[in-house]
Specification:
alpha+beta, seven-stranded mixed β-sheet, 29 helices, 49% helix
């Protein structure tokens, strides 16, 4: 039995001894747990357990199932020293198995980032760094988040510089070695080339390549084996070493035959070229996120003690008054207290046109002030700004694993051991078949060298990183890789009406004036009607009243002060404006006040059939006009819905409105299917019914009452102008609030999944086809071309070196995809 370990898990949500007992009983049900003691006052569960049987994540799951919460934090670490996807698996195991308190660990080989979810009171960053370093890898260290960006950049540049130097050393020695060796083999030089000292010269030329240029493969292979796994480094080190040390045996006269120093040197140099290109290409996969991070303003101009001073942007505090001139970047998030301007938010929201801003509006850090001078109060700084949160969300999502990656991970886990077995069997079969020791050895080397687990490991994460980065630049944020993957298979899209298809606030749509009425001296009767109505509603907090006031202000009307204001509950309002008695409300109010309707009944009925609220306005006892008010459509709604339909998706509108109102709106935007009179609590249930029809469904919404439906949907899509809780429940967030982003996100998902499938096909096909070729499977065909019958290890190294580059390059094509 393994030694018992102790852990104290923080538990939130306990209120009494019954709660504590519930937690204890639930944890005790786990195999391997010996004792559990819950302290209600400290809110901690002390658990004694056998680490070989019981796992901490399972304990956390038990506590969660009991209705309580174990608080956790997420940390991202930039890891150095990885050479293939198996290294990533090794680090994941090191974190999960060696550091108590880690609940999840995922490592993205493409961007070399480890995303760790952990219990902060149990595990620390130092524990994680120590575990990674013990596994033989490194972690980029920095004092602050800003310094971390620079440190990661420097680490990548140092790696490229080191790899480039080693490559040139390899080329310097491999090139003369290869030329002289080939010239001797083809009889292009004299008899002197067959003298024993020439083999010694080859040995001398090959040695720096083997142990300096190829040092990383030996170090990486040793780390891998020490951690009881095997990676690409093991294969390269084995393949090149067999050729190198076999040639030493020939050179020293212990055996007779041909030397293969040029083979060992060429294998290492060619693979080093491929790895260098791969490192450079992988760096490009994260360019979109780096571009977002680079948007941050470096300095900020703030007002202190009546003076304007410039300070570093990271020193701005909440409450500071920030001043931004035309053409300058807005340094942090805030609320405008003075000034108006147009702000370019394209790089954060994907909106191409600048957005007009005025006093009271919010501004986002890193956006560009185009026209006027703005003065605003800082509300969010540092890690709390919208830009920082977007970058953090995207990086965490990039670190997650898509379900489609599971197959590649399973294959990669057994790939290298399987290749070693295949190589040994290849050698044995050809030796027993009488091909001779050297041909059998050459095929063994070719099998070891041509196998490429890296292409498998890079196929999914590189496409995910590029796809999510492209989405971020278009105002599309994916919560995780699973959301990105699921979106490509959607069959139906459910749109919540209010705030999604419509603006979410009422606006005046019609002003119908009775014949022969002249409500004011204004040349424009409509403006006169709105001026009177808005004067009555001045100061009103009712949404319909606010809509009328806004409409009048937009026309430039000067509102009068009402006298004798009276609110009639459920009916409307009345007041005296400029000597005229004005009554504003519903038809019932008009009848109660015995007001002549002046033939406006037909127009009022028409407005109501169009899903608009008809507000009657009477002046001095006669109906002057009917004002139509409705929650107006967003400009992009019709186009967005038409696009979704052309993509083969069924579009469904969900609303709490009655059937007639819902049908009127549906006709206007082109929606074919309606779910009307749906209460907020029933939204998730209606969505479940669609799913039971066999459809893969997306839900698009923006409000708090949409959150359960967003969580129920196969893919929840939150409009970024809505509530934070909606975004938390959604798998995709559209930061611009533009409904056209729904189609963009689905197209991006389809393009990303198409790229992933192409990558996986290439990675599997490459290995499935070329490993048998390297093993000599085609040699049994009598008339087969000689280069296919005998795949030389140098050709195998060339193919292997560029297989990963092909996968990464294909993923980079996503940057140019049109969504």
């Amino acid at each position: 039995m393994a030694a018992q370990k102790q852990i104290a898990l923080p538990v939130r949500g306990m209120h009494c001894a019954t709660c504590a007992g519930k937690v204890e009983n639930n944890i005790k049900k786990l195999a391997g747990v010996s004792t559990v003691s819950v302290n209600l006052s400290t809110e901690k569960a002390s658990v004694s357990y056998d680490p070989t049987v019981a796992a901490i994540p399972a304990m956390v799951d038990r506590i969660t199932e009991a209705g309580f919460k174990v608080p956790s934090a997420t940390l991202e670490l930039a890891v150095t020293g990885m050479t293939c996807s198996n290294c990533a698996k090794t680090i994941e195991r090191a974190l999960l198995q060696k550091v108590p308190g880690i609940l999840e660990a995922g490592l993205n080989f493409a961007n070399e980032k480890a995303t760790v979810r952990y219990i902060s009171s149990v595990a620390s960053r130092a524990d994680m760094v120590a575990a990674i370093e013990r596994a033989g890898y490194g972690v980029v260290q920095a004092d602050s988040e800003e310094d971390m960006v620079d440190a990661e950049k420097k680490a990548r540049e140092d790696e490229i510089r080191d790899q480039t130097h080693k490559l040139w050393i390899g080329v310097l020695f491999t090139l003369p070695l290869f030329i002289l060796s080939m010239a001797r083999d083809f009889g292009l030089v004299g008899v002197w080339a067959h003298a024993p000292w020439v083999n010694v010269l080859f040995w001398l030329l090959a040695t720096p390549v083997q142990f300096y240029t190829g040092r990383d493969y030996y170090v990486g292979g040793w780390k891998s084996l020490r951690n009881r796994s095997a990676n690409m480094d093991v294969l390269v080190a084995l393949g090149s070493s067999v050729a190198y040390f076999y040639s030493i045996v020939i050179t020293t006269g212990l055996l007779g035959g041909h030397v293969y120093f040029e083979t060992s040197a060429a294998i290492i140099t060619l693979i080093k070229i491929g790895k260098l290109l791969e490192v450079r290409a992988k760096g490009k996969t994260s360019e979109a996120i780096k571009a977002l991070m680079g948007l941050q303003a470096k300095t900020a101009r703030i007002e202190r003690d009546g003076k304007e001073i410039d300070i570093p942007a990271d020193q701005v505090k909440v409450g500071d008054v920030v001043i931004v001139r035309p053409g300058e970047k807005i340094p942090v998030d805030g609320t405008i207290i003075d000034g108006q301007s147009a702000v370019d938010e394209a790089l954060l929201t994907g909106e191409s046109l600048p957005v007009d801003k005025k006093t009271g509006d919010e501004v986002i850090g890193a956006t560009l002030n185009k026209e006027g001078r703005l003065k605003f109060e800082a509300t969010k700084v540092g890690r709390e700004t919208a830009l920082a949160q977007i970058v953090r969300l995207v990086e965490e999502a990039q670190g997650s694993k898509a379900p489609i990656q599971a197959l590649a991970d399973k294959v990669a886990a057994v790939f290298v051991p399987a290749i070693i077995v295949i190589a040994v069997l290849t050698f044995a079969i050809w030796l027993l078949a009488g091909a001779g020791f050297t041909p059998a050895l050459i095929r063994l080397i070719a099998v070891l060298v041509i196998a490429c687990p890296c292409a498998l490991g890079l196929a999914t994460p590189t496409a995910i990183v590029v796809g999510m980065g492209k989405g971020a630049g278009q105002g599309i944020l994916f919560k995780n890789s699973a959301s990105l993957e699921r979106a490509h298979a959607l069959q139906a899209v459910v749109l919540d009406k209010t705030g999604t298809i419509t603006r979410g606030e009422p606006a005046v749509t019609d002003v119908v004036i009775a014949d022969g009425q002249t409500p004011s001296e204004n040349d424009d009767p409509e403006t006169g009607i709105l001026q009177l109505a808005a004067s009555v509603e001045r100061g009103s907090e009712h949404p319909l009243g606010e809509a009328i006031v806004r409409a009048a202000e937009e026309k430039g009307s000067r509102l009068s002060n009402p006298d004798g204001f009276r609110a009639i509950a459920g009916h409307g309002v009345s007041a005296e404006v400029d000597g005229k008695k004005v009554v504003l409300g519903n038809l019932r109010l008009m009848k109660n006040e015995n007001i002549a309707l002046n033939g406006l009944e037909t127009e009022a009925e028409r407005l109501e059939k169009e899903a608009k609220t008809a507000m009657w306005m009477a002046v001095d006892g006669k109906a002057e006009a009917v004002i139509g008010i409705a929650d107006t459509l967003k400009e992009s709604s019709r186009e967005a819905i038409a696009t979704l339909k052309t993509m083969g998706l069924e579009v469904v509108m969900m609303t709490g409105d009655n059937q007639a109102t819902a049908q009127a709106i549906a006709r206007e935007v082109g929606v074919d299917r309606i779910l009307a009179e749906v209460l907020p609590a029933d939204k998730a249930g209606n969505l479940e019914k669609l799913q039971k029809e066999g459809k893969i469904v997306a839900m698009v919404g923006d409000g708090i009452n949409d959150a359960p439906a967003l969580a129920q949907a196969d893919v929840g899509i939150a409009i970024g102008t809505g509530a934070d809780v909606a975004m938390e429940a959604a798998g995709i967030t559209l930061t611009s609030g533009d409904l056209r982003g729904v189609a963009k996100s689905i197209r991006l998902s389809r393009a990303t999944m198409r790229t992933i499938k192409q990558n996986l096909f290439w990675a599997f096909a490459y290995n499935v086809i070329l490993i048998p070729v390297a093993a000599g499977a085609l040699a049994v065909i009598p008339d087969m071309t000689i280069w296919l019958r005998e795949l030389h290890p140098i050709a195998a190294a060339f193919a292997m070196a560029f297989s990963s580059v092909t996968v990464v390059s294909n993923s980079l094509r996503l940057r140019r995809a049109r969504v």
